[in-house]
Specification:
This is Dienelactone hydrolase domain-containing protein. InterPro entries: AB_hydrolase_fold (IPR029058). It comes from Paraflavitalea soli. The protein has three domains: about 110 residues, Serine Threonine Protein Phosphatase 5, Tetratricopeptide repeat (Alpha Horseshoe); about 230 residues, Alpha/Beta hydrolase fold, catalytic domain (Rossmann fold, 3-Layer(aba) Sandwich); about 130 residues, no CATH class. About 35% of the residues lie in helices and about 25% in strands. The protein has an eight-stranded mixed β-sheet, with helices on one face. Strands 9-14-15-17-18 form a five-stranded mixed β-sheet, with no helix packed on it. Strands 10-11-16-19 form a four-stranded antiparallel β-sheet, with helices on one face. The longest helix is centred in the N-terminal third of the chain and has 19 residues. It is globular and about 85 Å long.
Length: about 525
């Protein structure tokens, strides 16, 4: 950090102390004014609004309206941010207030109208109706239908690009969760495009969805400026604690948003990525270990890897994480967890951001260029010939071609894996020793030459999903579970099953044509 940036940050910290702790608004106004005369290390509307409140209290309306206009130019349109602030009451008597409030509300209305996907012809994909016709057409052989689905390329062409639009995921009868989607200027509906899901921070405790959606998308989304150069579509969930990524609904929300996007936009199945900050970074860890099938790689920024998933499951997808040296999610605690996962075989690249604290927006240039460069070369591994899946939940039961039905009450066998994670608690004040593995269903499955070899414990049943990229249907499929051959016969394309799986997941690469379900004795 430069000397100038340090000076500005010192001024802002002192102003904030006077403003919020000591309630000396006049003294705070003097420091905000001095700080604003220099370039801010991270110019944000909320920093300027803090200054506006103190300028208004001290009677400097000219300065207050100057910085209100700056906030507006930055894209801030939520008048409720300051309407409830008693310090700005005097501004409302100023003749400039009403025109400003009107213009701000007009900007907000324009934004809300502009995000309707129907304006650009991408509210749905009418071409999907073809699939039912193909399925019913008996003149199309099963293998030809497979090829039609695998080569699916019928997508609507957006009327305008370089636009943000808004969709919803229906989780259940009571949860209808919005998300924003960015269509880059160079999106070509004829070519597969990469997709980034970016999950913001600070929402696991929110009881309600944000009132001002534009503010959330624009100011909690540091990846936004990078999307054009990467020609990358982005999903930005608008979330609250009802869909936090420690709930079933949270996993469903992200999965459905990706599926819906893939039905309307031409997405490269093997170039779907998930990144997040703080709560969003924790979400990246949770999905990496709980429901990774849709994704190629995970990027966690100042998150906490202590969710419902299992450390062993990091072996199925690579993770690239950033941990600030002075984060309240203790750096050493996260680092020792990453090292434990690496010992188990995980491809987890861990990076400490020296000298920084939790809020990463001011130093985003130390993080995001690395992530976007990394995504250029990353790709989902399929067909993958090995899956290791440890779980204590029948909800988090599947990775790629393997699904398990667990019974954690089964007796632990001598082959059952266990180890001790030696780390620290979240804030790094206390050492912890966590016994790992004993209470989990554990499965390791490998595949080679039409043979699936599975070692599994505390498991009731196994389901193997069949892909033509993996299995030669002209030859028998063999399944060996815990050293015993339990299946040896040919399988075939199940037409109805294949179409149902395709419409559900809309994955042209992982296109399942049948499944084999077997009990574990």
């Amino acid at each position: 950090m430069s000397t100038t940036a340090q000076t500005v940050n010192t001024l802002l910290d002192s102003a904030s102390l006077l403003h919020f702790k000591k309630k000396d608004y006049t003294a705070a106004a003097a420091l905000y004014k001095k700080a604003f005369q220099q370039p801010l290390p991270y110019p944000s509307y909320f920093t300027y609004l803090n200054g506006v409140a103190c300028f208004a209290y001290s009677g400097d309306h000219d300065l207050a309206f100057r910085y209100l206009d700056i906030c507006k130019k930055m894209g801030w349109v939520d008048i409720t941010d300051i309407n409830t602030d008693t310090l700005i009451v005097s501004l409302k008597a100023d003749k400039r207030w009403k025109p400003f409030e009107t213009s701000l509300n007009n900007e907000k209305d324009l934004f809300l109208k502009s995000i309707d996907p129907a304006l650009y012809g991408v509210q749905q994909n009418d071409h999907l109706k073809k699939i039912a016709t193909w399925q019913a057409d008996k003149s199309i052989p099963d293998d030809s239908l497979y090829t039609l689905l695998q080569q699916w390329s019928a997508y609507p062409v957006p009327g305008k690009k370089g636009r943000v639009v808004k969709y919803y995921t229906r989780i259940n009868d009571t949860l209808n969760i919005p998300y924003f989607l960015y269509i880059p200027t160079n999106y070509d509906a004829r070519k597969p495009n990469a997709l980034l899901v970016y999950i913001p921070g600070g929402w696991w405790a929110r009881p309600n969805l944000p009132k001002d959606e534009k503010k959330g998308y624009q100011f909690e989304n540091p990846t936004y400026p990078y999307l054009e150069d990467a020609n990358m579509i982005e999903i930005f969930p608008v979330v609250n604690r009802s869909v936090a990524l420690y709930t079933d609904e949270g996993y469903i929300n992200i999965e459905k948003a990706v599926i819906q996007t893939k039905k309307i936009f031409n997405i490269d199945d093997n170039k779907v990525f998930l990144a997040g900050f703080s709560d969003g970074g924790s979400s990246a860890y949770n999905i990496a270990t709980g429901n990774p099938t849709q994704f190629a790689k995970f990027y966690a920024i100042n998150g906490w890897p202590n969710g419902r998933g299992s450390f062993m499951n990091y072996t199925n997808r690579p993770v690239f994480s950033f941990s600030a040296e002075h984060d309240f999610y203790n750096n050493l605690s996260v680092k020792t967890r990453a090292a434990f996962a690496a010992k188990l075989g995980a491809n987890w690249l861990f990076r400490t951001v020296a000298g920084e604290d939790h809020f990463y927006y001011p130093y985003a240039k130390k993080v995001l260029p690395l992530i976007f460069r990394n995504m250029q070369t990353a790709s989902r591994p399929f067909p993958n010939n090995k899956i290791t899946w440890f779980t204590g939940s029948n909800f988090l039961s599947r990775c790629d071609w393997l699904q398990v039905q667990i019974d954690t009450l089964r007796k632990t066998s001598k082959e059952h894996f266990s180890d001790t994670l030696r780390s620290f608690d979240m804030d790094g004040t206390k050492k912890v020793a966590i016994e790992y593995g004993n209470d989990l269903s554990q499965t390791t499955a490998t595949f080679c030459s039409n043979t699936f070899t599975i070692d599994t414990y505390k498991t009731d049943s196994i389901t193997i999903y069949i892909s033509l990229m993996m299995v030669d249907l002209s030859q028998p499929v063999k399944v060996i579970i815990n050293g015993r051959e339990v299946y040896h016969q040919k399988t075939s394309i199940d037409r109805a099953f294949m179409v149902k799986q395709f419409l559900h997941y809309f994955d042209r690469t992982m296109l399942w044509v049948n499944k084999i379900s077997l009990s574990v004795n």
